[in-house]
Write a structure and sequence with these properties.
By secondary structure, this protein is mainly α. It contains 15 helices and two strands. It folds into two domains: 55 residues, no CATH class; 220 residues, no CATH class. A hairpin with a 4-residue loop joins β1 and β2.
Length: 298
């Protein structure tokens, strides 16, 4: 069990482990604003072997060096959030348009047999209805007799272009992957003009990245769990602009995001700007493009 430490004592702990702290008050204010535990996720990469209980910092490591990486990560998250929001809205629009044009705008998209769900998983239709039931938007409430009514007789009158606005990004991703017994993903990809192969998994990776950004989670040295198969031609083009990066890196997902936005709405890629801005901090950019586990720093 670890003891409670005041912010001042937290600074003392960092210094006792060999971290150079130029200004105690500044470091204490930073820890009070950002949380020691969050900061420690970055600090581990500057320590000898924290996974083996050796929390000593490598000689010469300074608080300012780690904070520069921490601040760069925050800035990248803030840069990505608007781009991910644009992608989410773009996908909502094309999903609604594709379903309405091919399967009709009413009822069908809320039926279980519209989706190819995995055994023992929550039916996608149930996820759609649950998100609709949680909504308090007027364009949703007008199709219910009261705030708690989610009866199919009411929802059968709810058009898909209204329903998609109530779905979470995760639910939207499930619909793309499983809708029309698996055919919806190809139809939406065709509508956007992006590669068909692996498209639903690319969407899943965008949801994953959006959630990490929304929850202020670390991107630096993070290997993406739900990594989508970014097309080779997209990777080759991105590497010409931003240098080498690993398939499960955050940079790979950004390359995929740029491709979806460029093809779907002619948006300017953000990856070249990020690369130009942060490549000068080699420690940060290397961790973003080629993530490592802190165990690799023995």
């Amino acid at each position: 069990m670890k003891p409670y430490l005041s912010w001042g004592r937290q600074v003392e702990l960092l210094r006792s482990r060999g971290l150079h702290v130029p200004n105690d008050d500044e470091c204490s204010r930073f820890l009070a604003a950002e949380n020691y535990y969050r900061f420690s996720g970055y600090a581990r990469y500057f320590q000898r072997a924290p996974h083996d209980g050796d929390d000593a910092f490598h000689p010469g490591t300074s608080f300012d060096e780690i904070r520069a990486v921490y601040d760069a990560d925050r800035e990248v998250r803030e840069s990505l959030i608007p781009q991910l929001a644009r992608a989410e809205i773009l996908l909502r629009s094309h999903v609604a348009h594709t379903i309405a044009a091919t399967h009709g705008p009413y009822a069908t998209y809320l039926r279980e047999d519209f989706y190819s769900d995995a055994p023992n998983s929550e039916p996608t239709a149930a996820s759609c209805v649950r998100d609709i039931a949680r909504s308090r938007e007027r364009h949703i409430l007008r199709f219910r007799t009261d705030a708690g009514d989610t009866g199919s007789a009411e929802l059968d009158r709810l058009p898909v272009w209204s329903a998609v606005e109530a779905w979470s990004f995760g639910t939207l991703s499930k619909c793309i992957e499983r809708g029309a017994r698996g055919a919806l993903s190809e139809a939406v990809a065709t509508s956007l003009g992006v590669a068909l192969a692996g498209f639903p998994y690319r969407v899943r990776s965008l949801v994953y990245l959006r959630n990490r950004c929304a929850h202020h989670s670390r991107l630096w040295n993070h290997s993406v769990i739900d990594a989508g198969p970014t097309p080779n031609n997209v990777r080759v083009k991105a590497k010409r602009l931003a240098g080498q990066f690993d398939p499960r890196s955050i940079v790979d997902v950004i390359a995929s995001l740029d491709d979806v936005l460029a093809r779907g709405m002619g948006a300017t890629p953000i990856l070249p700007t990020l690369s130009e801005r942060y490549a000068s901090n080699d420690t940060y950019w290397r961790g973003l493009a080629k993530p490592e586990n802190p165990r690799d720093h023995r």
